[in-house]
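May I ask you to comment on the folded chain given beneath this request?
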Amino acid sequence: MATPDIYTKMRDSDRRIEQASTDDAELGPLSQLPGTWSNTPGLPGHGWNMIALPFGGPAAAPFNYRLLVNQYNEDLKFTLIGSRVPNRGIRAVPGGVEEADQFVVTLDYVQSIKQIKADDFPESGLAGEFNQDIHHEHGLWLNMTNEVTDGVNIGRLASVPHGDSLLALGSSEVLNGPPVIPDYSGLPIGGPTDLSNPYLGPYKHFHDNLFEGVFDPVNPNDLLKVANQDVNIVRTTKLEVDTTVKSGGIHNIPFVVKQANAAQMKSIFWIQELDEVDDYGKPKLRLQYFQTVILDFFGRRDGGPGLVRWPHVSINTLEKVS
């Protein structure tokens, strides 16, 4: 929520778009994001991804899907601030109505991801090669400075070249110390839950033969916890958004809806201040995230209505490099 001084400044000033700065108080919980975040030089592959995909042909039997896992490097850049963006409104007061405008501050981002290792099961020959560009995303983070509804004070807008656009809404929180990384099962929802079931053969394959010796698609968030071992994190800003929050959602092109519909997205960003300082005397910063996109395809196998829900999980640990 904006302080009265910041609210008055936005109300009485013109809208502006300029280079984002970590000194801009109008960004609120997003204020540490401006700049470039990247995987640590010399220590590639803090990014991990898993996704189940429809897959046909003799090699696909009896699953008709393959599980793709990859390791990646990422650049995540936050560059432009759009400040004092007014959403016009009114409210009832005794004797009439008054203005009740909301002011939104936006932060532009671009995400670029290169694959460094990949494997799938059953083997398709489609996993891709080293240093292949596998993802490019444009979007905005929103700081709703006032007139907050149902505790929703942040949002994320994103568009990806598969033909998907989303609005995810949520809230921010500041924590003393490190984040609590939640446990998360990467197994499909609406299917069997016992890895001995043949239908989960691709998951069992990577559970028994960890990808790159460390990544388990059954428990993907374990690597975020490992990355925090022996790291002294003194303060964490948590940004959590979800497309299932009221008025959020995802829209996809017809082919995506028909074949593997992206139905939900949830992401948690943890901006971490370390017990170290950079060359400018400011706390060194890290950024961890957990993101899951739910893909719906194939009929449920547990007798329930609808389709099996397949978690597409991405995790990473980034350092601020500029």
Notes: Residues 4-11 form the longest helix (8 residues).
